[in-house]
Amino acid sequence: MKIKEVKKISPKLKKFQDEEWLVSDIEHYGKARNWVKKSYKFIAKDKDEILGVLDLVTEANVAFLEGLIVNHNHRGEGIGKNLLLFAENFAKEKKCTKIWTETDEDWEAAKFYKKMGYEICGVHEKHYLGRKGLILTKFL
């Protein structure tokens, strides 16, 4: 047996994955599932100034908040809150039942998400750059 990195998905590899994931879905869920992953980007602007950006990924009725960043000159103005509420409503419209994210335990973001109703559901020990990360989730 050899193991190697694949740079391009061949038709044969795609067929293999499609067939084997179908078998796995039937084993685990009792029927075939349509696993469609979609990425979305939301931007908050005032005229031409970008105030904040939120990246969201949806898959199998779950939303992942991949990133939320607010212009450092405008933090504390409710921009992050408005972006997050917008994304949560968007996720509900897409039939998502929960949203989750991850952040460093010492960052202001951890306090922000808790204030917004997110709960810690897991911890990444020695994660990015050896730091402790939190996994936070909220049911929609």
Structural notes for this entry:
This protein is of the alpha+beta class. The chain has one domain: Gcn5-related N-acetyltransferase (GNAT) (Aminopeptidase), CATH 3.40.630.30. The protein is built from three helices and six strands; from the N terminus they run H-E-E-E-H-E-H-E-E. It has helices at residues 11-29, 79-93, 108-115; strands at residues 38-46, 49-59, 62-70, 98-104, 119-124, 133-139. It is globular, with a radius of gyration of 19 Å.
In a few lines, what is going on in this structure?
The protein is of the alpha+beta class.
Core attributes:
140 residues; Aminopeptidase; single chain; alpha+beta; globular; 6 strands
Query: Which strand order spans the largest sheet, edge to edge or round the barrel?
Result: 1-2-3-4-6-5
- Record field, number of beta strands: 6
The run of helices and strands is HEEEHEHEE
Strand content: 35-45%
Number of domains: 1
The CATH superfamily turns out to be Gcn5-related N-acetyltransferase (GNAT)
CATH class: Alpha Beta
- What is the molecular shape? globular
Number of helices: 3
End-to-end Cα distance: 45 Å
CATH architecture: 3-Layer(aba) Sandwich
Strand-pairing-aware structural class: alpha+beta
Average pLDDT score: 95
Report the radius of gyration as a whole number of Å: 19 Å
CATH topology: Aminopeptidase
